[in-house]
# Entry
Amino acid sequence: MSPFFVTSLLFGLTFGQTASLCAPSEYIIHVEKRECAYCLAINTTICAGFCMTRDSNGKKLLLRSALSQNVCTYKEMLYQTALIPGCPHHTIPYYSYPVAVSCKCGKCNTDYSDCVHEKVRTNYCTKPQKLRNM
# Structure
């Protein structure tokens, strides 16, 4: 093996272990209410990416704190509210959603995140669509 290849490989392994690829990512949320005439497609940002975790194969030998599984989660976020078009007067036409400002690798906070991986949910509209850009 060439010295350049070995150096590149070591650099990649070292840098790959310390750098996370957790960052705000563009995402489209589709929101609709049964009473309203339209579905609203909202462009927003969510936290997504890769975070280093520890292998829990030796869980009987390690302290519980050493078994933490970090996830890509919100460091800073703000909430915005959108108006769903075509709603009758007796319906509340507003929908609030989080916007990721910055992200971090850390423990999942159940106060504002769904920390359980559920079955794949569809993210599409069944009604005519209106687009709202952030």
In short: The first strand starts at residue 23 and ends at 32. The chain is about 10% helix and 35% strand. The beta strands are 23-32, 39-48, 71-83, 94-106, 129-132. The chain has a mean pLDDT of 76.
